[in-house]
Amino acid sequence: MSGPRRRARRFVRAWDDLRGRSGRRVVELVRKQVAVARAGAVLARSTASGTIGRSAARTRMTEVEHEGDAARAELVRVLRRVLATPIDREDLFRLSRSIDDVLDHLRDYVRETDLFGPEDLGFAVEPLQAVSDGLDELETAVLKMIDDPGSVTVAVLATRKACSRVRQLYQTRLTELFTGPLDMETLRERELLSRLDAVGRRLGEAADELADAMLKRSH
C-alpha cells in the first residue's frame, strides 16, 4: 500500500474514533460474541429437552463454535487498529476470552452428552435456561457500555444472579444423586453436572470482568 493511501486510511480510522463509530463497532462485536454463546446455550438446552438429537446437536455446535471463533478473531483484529475503545483494551480481551470459555464448555457439554451422556438429560434443562438468561443480561449490559454506562452494573448483577441459579441447581441435583445408588448412570450425570457448573462459573467471570472494567472507567 502506498504512503498516501496508508495515511488516508489512518485518517479515516482517527475520524471514526473521534465520532465514536469505532467504539460502537467494538461493542457490536462483543455483543455478537455473546449472542453466539447464547445460541450455543439454546442448542444445548434443546438437546437436554429432546428437541434435537445428540449427534445432530454435536454437528450443529461445531458450526456455532466456528461462528464464535470468527467473532472473537474479528474483535481482536479491530482492537489492534482502533485508537479509542469503550473500556480498556486489556479488559476487552479478558471479557472476550471468558465469553469464549462459556462457549467452549457448552461445546464440551454437547459433545459429552453424545459420547457418554445418560439416557435422561432432563436435569440439564433448568441450568441451561439459567445460562441463556444470564447471557441475555450480559448482552444487555454490553449494549449499554457507551450510551448508558451507569446501568451496566444492574444488568451485570442480573447475570450474576443467573450464574448463582446454575450453581444452586447443580448442588441440589448433586445432593439428590448422592442419596441414590452409585452406578454408571450416576457417574455420567455427575460429569455433565460438573460441566454445566463450569459454564456458569465462566459466565460469572465474564460478568465480573465487565463490572470491573466499568468501575475502572468511572475513575
Automatic annotation (TrEMBL):
This is DUF47 domain-containing protein. PANTHER family: UPF0111 PROTEIN YKAA (PTHR37298). Belongs to the UPF0111 family. It holds the Pfam family PhoU_div.
